[in-house]
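Usage

Read records sequentially. Each one opens with the input sequence:
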Amino acid sequence: MSSPKWLVVVAFLLIYVIWGSTYLAIHEAIETIPPFVMAGVRFLVAGAVLYAVARLFGAPEPQKGEWKPAAIVGLFLLLGGNGGVVQAQLTVPSGIASLIIAGVAIWMALFEAIRPGGRWPSWPVALGLLIGLGGVALLVAPRGAGSVDPWGAASLIAAEISWAIGSIYARGAKLPKSAFVATAVEMMAGGAGLLLLALPTGQWGMLDLQAVSRQSVIAVTYLAVFGSIVAFTAYVWLLSVRPPSLVATYAYVNPVVAVFLGVVFLHEKYTTTMGVAAIAILASVALITKFSGSRPKPEAIRKEVEVANEPCA
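and closes with the structure output:
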């Protein structure tokens, strides 16, 4: 039985708009809540809720050997990946952060080429790598008053690298059979890791509950409910009814949404340099996605969960 077209359209709009808006929500959330504390609470709560709901609807619990691999994936994706993003957004505008993070496909292609048994990129993918690296370099290159904070840029690049490593590891890892349970475990592990990281970095000491604004609370709630649960559910469902290559178009749309929202609501500047860099990075992602070979079939959805919470979210 084919899925209603209107439902497919709604699901695409959810992953396009919600995941594109997470940068704006992160900006609002970390205004009064330290980044690692905010992200840790978000993922720990969202993961616990998703796990409970999945089990309630009959999803099998993880087997003994599946907890550790799922936790490792969660630490790379959410502790290293999303943690780097939220920390960077203290000093990097949301639009620029989204554009840099869009280049995560570049690192995934590079690591895929150099890992044991990996595949060397075809010439279109190699061209995409060069174009994408050029776009990122254009964004982060020093240029006076309009320069991107170097520490923030480094945090974003480290987040991409962590995300890429976790994604490649996840492809061969023994994860729970249910995509929802697998992602829930990853969220809980990543959330716990972020809360622990907040201790040595002093972010727990910076938390002042009385100073937490209503906007920040709303933003964290939005990130947990819509960014981590609603959009992910729509994503997994789309993978079962539409080709993965079509579903992956969110990677091109999310940065556009993030830049637009940053300009409109945060009054971030949009420059010609940003425009050229955006075209280069998104063209790179398109080339790498199109020519990187076949993607897993829908029955292998559990191996797709590594992109469900793209570090932009």
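Summary fields computed downstream for this record:
- The radius of gyration is 18 Å.
- The chain has a mean pLDDT of 88.
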